[in-house]
Design brief:
Mean pLDDT of chain B: 86
Largest sheet of chain B: none
Number of helices of chain B: 8
Chains: A alpha/beta (208), B mainly alpha (245), C mainly alpha (254)
Oligomer: heterotrimer
Strand order of the largest sheet of chain A: 6-7-8-3-9
Order of helices and strands of chain A: EEEHEEHEHHHEHEE
Distance between the termini of chain A: 34 Å
Helix content of chain A: 25-40%
Strand content of chain A: 25-35%
Distance between the termini of chain B: 29 Å
Structural class of chain B: mainly alpha
Low-confidence stretches of chain A: none
Radius of gyration of chain A: 17 Å
Strand content of chain B: under 5%
Structural class of chain A: alpha/beta
Helix content of chain B: over 70%
Low-confidence stretches of chain B: 187-191
Chain lengths: 208, 245, 254
């Protein structure tokens, strides 16, 4: 029986008068992926942010590796990577510099590692240009590079394939597949399905 | 048993009902004390040997000033409870306190100005206490402004709560620096009657006004609190039960 | 841990050690927090220098406000000298307020602030780093410009070192107090007036002590007492303000 890595119990969250999360619960083992679907406004982003600990549920609990995340939120954060709708990049830095600062704040990252991962996402040609000159798809690739560099066990992704072409979607698929193969856990909010490279994902549908 | 009582205070329906029951217990004594205090202070107490009848405004000014500070403390404590233990009723209390405190502060400033005119011939003096009151008014306005600027009630509660707590830490510092500033520039006399030197005939009505104002604050707070709870919980099911009854 | 396929790429293979090592690769918590803070500082400084034009704005504002007083009151240097402490400090306070809006705004907008909150590093240290960068870019230049403004108001050269010292120390506290207000008002549209309303009452002690220090400097007396008070406020600010700013940032991310 594989270890349960992420367990969520009965999450309830209100935003003002709206009951956004209505008793959400699921359990993920190591190497498992959860696909969260739902129409706009059904609470996918809210769920991800609650899992991160950015939002505080009125009821319910999130457990990582058997321990309530509220007990040591900082350690939990050190073990997760969250990618929101917009890639977290400064427009006036280059892709390379962005990664250097973003990942560097979390762990030491060498120049060689940067080169490697930028090549992996196909950014070698334009990684020294300022991010403000890049297209939305290119920015998304840089964000994925950051994700790969962080090398953490839990990935929380909000619509990771936005703005990506078919090749980009394959990249996302293979990155997720590799993460799962390593024993990592992935929760991804999506509008359509995850790329075909990701097999055997659990599904959770949120209703508005 | 006391612990359950404390826990129940965190429940909006319980607080709503409790506030309704308690209000008359504060409102009537407040009215009586204020009436008695005003009678004692405005009519019965002898005129001050220095200021004549002009000093009588102290019966409104001093309690207002005192309450303006006490309400701020209450607001900060309630907000801190709401922040630390995430008890929504705490935030509701803080929200209810703010306009009351701001009104007391405004009253203290106006009565202070009215007192100043016959005493020194000018409506405003930058004496340390009036200046501190003015700064306190800005602290209240900032608190209410921050609440008003944030649409999400939860974020408004928590942000303004943090502001209130930061303000409380600063109030002693601000007061000290204003007093220091004032002493440097030798501004004219302060408008206070030393409490120890006041004869009982003057002091007793003042204390009655003080007690009366405190009870008045409690009564108004309870009424406003019910309004706050209603507005925050308007989507909850218990509201329908209560409004039907 | 079982069930892990070996990765091909070298960097990604390091994921194995990071998963197990966790905090191990980050070293001691304190060292990690300092490293993170240092990087955050460097990043903000780098970004500011990419938009060098914007750095001048608070300084230009400071100069302009100072200029308003002779025009509005009188060009007589003797009169201006008497007003100089107040004018300098009010102008510095307003210029500092102007620059505060940008402390967190861009980071909140592009999602990097959120990444700081999720970095697993001490958000307090990161806030301290950002405020330090802000001070280096606005407060310190203001302190260096203050002598010029003072000279234009008829202040003698002997008073200038004291003025630089007091504005340097005072502006540290102004940046720190301002960071709390800026964090609280994140995302509020046109928050300039509200930010001022929140920050100014809390900044009054700095104004009072700073103006007093400047006055003493102009009169040739020792300004040690108010300067020490300014330093005490700065120390209090450094200890408490980043903590409050971090709490305020988390509140705004909720």
């Amino acid at each position: 029986m594989p270890n349960e890595s992420l367990e969520v119990e009965n999450l309830h969250l209100w935003r003002g008068d709206r009951h956004v999360l209505k008793g959400v619960g699921f359990s993920l083992a190591e190497g498992a992926c959860l696909e969260v679907t739902g129409v706009n406004g059904s609470g996918k982003t809210t769920l991800l942010r609650t899992l991160c600990g950015l939002m505080y549920p009125e009821e319910g609990r999130v457990r990582w590796r058997g321990r309530d995340v509220r007990g040591d939120l900082r350690a939990f954060h050190a073990a997760l990577a969250y990618l929101g709708h917009e890639p977290p990049l400064k427009a006036d830095l280059s892709a390379r510099e962005n990664l250097h600062f973003w990942i560097g704040v979390r762990r030491r990252v060498s120049s060689a590692e940067l080169d490697e991962v930028l090549a992996r996402v196909g950014a070698r040609a334009w990684c020294e240009r300022l991010v403000r000159t890049l297209s939305a798809g290119q920015k998304r690739r840089v964000a994925l590079a950051g994700l790969a560099l962080l090398a953490v066990p839990l990935w929380l992704l909000d619509e990771p394939t936005t703005n990506l072409d078919a090749e980009g979607r394959r990249l996302v698929g293979s990155l997720i597949a590799e993460q799962l193969a390593r024993g990592g856990t992935v929760v991804a909010a999506v509008h359509q399905e995850l790329p075909a490279e990701v097999r055997g994902a659990q599904r959770l549908e949120l209703t508005a | 048993m006391t612990w359950t009582w404390f826990h129940r205070l965190g429940s909006p329906p319980y607080v709503y009902a409790l506030a309704a029951r308690l209000t008359p217990w504060f409102a009537w004594p407040a009215a009586l004390l204020i009436a008695a205090g005003l009678w004692g202070g405005l009519v019965l107490a002898p005129p001050d040997y220095q200021q004549g009848d002009g000093f009588r405004i102290i019966y409104v000014h001093a309690p207002s000033a005192w309450m303006s500070l006490m309400v701020y403390m209450t607001m900060a404590v309630a907000a801190a409870i709401g922040l630390v233990w995430r008890i929504k009723v705490g935030h509701a209390v803080a929200a209810a306190c703010a306009p009351i405190g701001a009104s007391f502060t405004f009253a203290a400033l106006v009565t202070g100005a009215l007192w100043g005119e016959p005493m020194w011939g000018t409506y405003w003096e930058w004496d340390p206490r009036l200046t501190s009151e003015l700064i306190l008014l800005f602290l209240y306005l900032g608190y209410m402004g921050l609440r008003a600027g944030l649409e999400d009630t939860q974020r408004a509660d928590r942000a303004s709560g943090l502001l209130a707590v930061a303000g409380v830490v600063n109030v002693p510092i601000i007061h000290y620096s204003v007093t220091w500033w004032n002493s440097l520039h030798q501004a004219p006399s302060v408008m206070q009657l030393g409490k120890p030197t006041m004869p009982p005939a003057m002091l007793v009505p003042l204390l009655m006004m003080l007690a009366g104002f405190t009870l008045y604050f409690a009564a108004v707070l309870l009424v406003r609190l019910r309004g706050e709870v209603l507005s925050r919980e308007r989507a909850a099911s218990w509201i329908h039960e209560v409004l039907k009854a | 841990m079982s069930g892990r396929a070996p990765s091909a790429a070298g960097a990604l293979a390091r994921a194995a050690t990071v998963e197990e090592g966790g905090a191990g690769t980050l070293g001691l918590d304190a060292t990690a927090a300092l490293r993170a803070a240092w990087l955050a500082l460097l990043r903000d400084l780098t970004l500011a220098f990419r938009k060098r034009g914007q750095l001048i704005q608070p300084l230009a504002f400071f100069a302009m406000v100072t200029m308003l007083f002779p025009l509005a009151i009188s060009p007589e240097l003797a009169r201006l000298r008497a007003l100089a402490p107040g004018v300098l400090w009010v102008a510095a306070l307003l210029a500092s307020l102007l620059a505060l809006e940008f402390l967190f705004r861009d980071d909140a907008y592009d999602g990097t602030l959120e990444q700081y909150a999720l970095s697993g590093q001490s958000l307090t240290w990161l806030m301290f780093a950002k405020t330090a960068a802000h001070w280096l870019l606005t407060g310190l230049p203001l302190a260096l410009m203050a002598p010029l403004a003072a000279l234009s108001l008829g202040v003698s050269v002997s008073a200038l070192p004291g003025i630089v010292a007091s504005v340097t120390v005072g502006s540290v506290t102004l940046s720190l107090i301002g960071s709390i207000g800026a964090a609280l008002t994140l995302g509020i549209k046109r928050s300039g007036a509200l930010l001022s309303l929140l920050t100014l009452p809390l900044s009054l002690p700095v104004l009072i002590f700073g103006a007093r220090a400047t006055e003493l400097a102009i009169n040739g007396a020792s300004l040690l007492a108010p300067l020490e008070l300014l330093a005490a406020l700065a120390v209090l600010g450094v200890t408490l303000a980043p903590l409050a700013a971090a709490a305020a940032v988390r509140i705004s991310l909720e």
